[in-house]
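Quick one: structure for this chain?
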Amino acid sequence: MSKIEVAIIGASGYTGGELVRILSRHPKVEITTVTSRKNEGNPLSELHPHLEDLDLKFSNPENKDVDADIVFCAVPHGASMKIVPDFLNNGSKVIDLSGDFRFQNIETYEKWYNIKHIHPELDAVFGLPEINRDLIKDADLIANPGCFPTGAILSSLPIVENELVDRIILDSKSGVSGAGVNPNGNTHYPTCSDNVKPYNMTTHRHTPEIREQLRNFGNGNVKVSFTPHLVPVIRGIITTNHSFLIKDNVTADDIYSLYEEYYKNEAFVQVLKDNRVPLLASVRGSNYCQIGGISLDDEDQLVVISAIDNLVKGASGQAIQNMNIMFGFDETEGLKELGLYP
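Got it. Here's what it folds into:
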């Protein structure tokens, strides 16, 4: 099969840069278009200095002139829904990295994002391969999951599907790159260095995304609470998943074995040997989600830990994993890079 042509819309941000970095090593793709309105005509390496060897320049074509087999949209929510239909009409497959198409219930999106959805008729597949692989294969539009939901959902699925719990409390710590490339008061170095800052404690937009997906499993009634924290690292999300067992005579070893069996055929979910605790540094730069530290206390509180790189498995790497599935490539193609520990 000849190489497929790839366009990246909004390539000036961190996720756009990660798409280029990973796809530049993919043997079955050719990056033909990288767009940025503000940086039109400038070399890609002016914003992404680690991509110095790539002979690519930012462009700003009309949507109708974007000719590619697949388009990655790495633009903010609200902006993406305005342009995705144009690329679909061009005959391209589309993977959207914003929140615009992630929800089965459009009213949920409009409530939590406070934006009127202008294309509710578009049918997108939620692009978490571990749950929707068969649907992704035949999809034209993929809604790439959020970074927090990826680690949260993967750490929850086995216990939700097997109805071992009915409430989950998710405590996630995220690196500063999750806030995007544009600096603000919260990401200013004196604010975030040597500090841990909870934010949007009960109102984060990823909460309904996690709830909606998990309620497709088990009895469909699991309750989910989610609180994110900003921590002084660049990359990574570590999620501590708290719940209380509702079934008797279940041990931590039983649950660890459940996770091993559940994910035994998943290329990018690693249930750590000997139930070791996942580390952010172990997944940095990789498309892996590591799960471990599974513990049960004497009052039946269950703890499960997951770790991902928010820019890779939490965004660009997962998008490429979806692309591989859509085009019938080996799912791991271009994504076999191991973590960058230490």
